Amino acid sequence: MTQNRLTVTTPAGSFGAYVARPSAAKAPAVVVIQEIFGVNAVMRGICDDLAGQGYLAICPDLFWRIEPGIDITDQSDAEWKKAFELYNAFNVDAGVEDIAATIDLIRADKQCSAKVGAVGFCLGGLLAFLTATRTDSDGSVAYYGVGIDKYLGEADRLTRPLMLHIAEEDQFVPKAAQALIIDGLKNRAQVTIHTYPGRDHAFARKGGEHYDEVDAQTANQRTATFFKSALA
After folding, report:
1. 9 forms bridges with which residues in the sheet?
2. Residues 168, 184: contact at Cβ < 8 Å?
3. C-alpha–C-alpha distance, residues 84 and 172, integer Å
4. How far apart are the C-alpha atoms of 131 and 133, rounded to whole Å?
5. Strand ordering across the sheet containing 162-167
6. Which of 157, 147, 197 is nearest to 177 (CA)?
7. How many Å separate Cα 61 from the centre of its chain?
8. Residue 72 main-chain phi, psi, to 5 deg
9. What confidence tens digit (pLDDT) does each residue in 209-224 have?
10. Could you say which of 98, 170, 212, 215 is catalytic?
11. What is the pLDDT at residue 98?
């Protein structure tokens, strides 16, 4: 596995992306969609893990329009304050356009098998849902996506597989919002929904306050099985 960076160029400007490459000459790709802390060690670690599983993983800097190069943690009040400032300033529609450009770039990479999936966390979970409705991603996974309930009107655009991981005690996704998401998507053949009783937001974030090793491993195994099928 090797690591490097790529530059994604769009009509609005260019931004960087962290890339982890597998040992295989050809491999499917996965776009890793950041939380509100930027392309930090957690996101880079997810890319590295995916590369170890045989995927070409890329994590674009989606905050570049606000402040390029954000790399903070969830370990201090000051960083949380900064993260929420970035979240509130973030343009979701522009972010999805940047993900689409990232998909195009990595699909054209000489190491890519042409199949490209996406996985997102928190804010990235919402963006993963919108990646499924607005781009040609071959399969998308959303971990505890915040705000998906506000975009359920786009569900008719779903044509490729989508998996949702929902924390039942998510402080940022109220029970009512969870019910709307489940009711709005449960009868769609492309969608698989998993809920996690007792789990709070970011239960799969290593080192986070609400990290749960058992349920994180369960969710990650489900994601691995999903990608093996969707990106085959």
Report:
1. 14
2. no
3. 12
4. 5
5. 2-10, 13-21, 56-60, 27-33, 112-121, 139-143, 162-167, 191-196
6. 147
7. 12
8. -125, 175
9. 999 999 999 999 999 9
10. 170
11. 98
Let me know if 194 is a catalytic residue. Answer: no
Q: Which of 98, 138, 149, 201 is catalytic?
A: 201
pLDDT per residue as tens digits for the range 130-140: 999 999 999 99
Q: pTM score, two decimals? A: 0.97
Residue 16's H or E segment, with its range, is: strand 13-21
* pLDDT, tens digit (0-9, with 9 covering 90-100), for 3-40: 799 999 999 999 999 999 999 999 999 999 999 999 99
- Spatial contact of 34 and 9, defined as CB atoms under 8 Å apart: no
Residue ranges and CATH numbers for the domains of the chain are: 2-230 (3.40.50.1820)
Three-class secondary structure of residue 71 per DSSP: strand
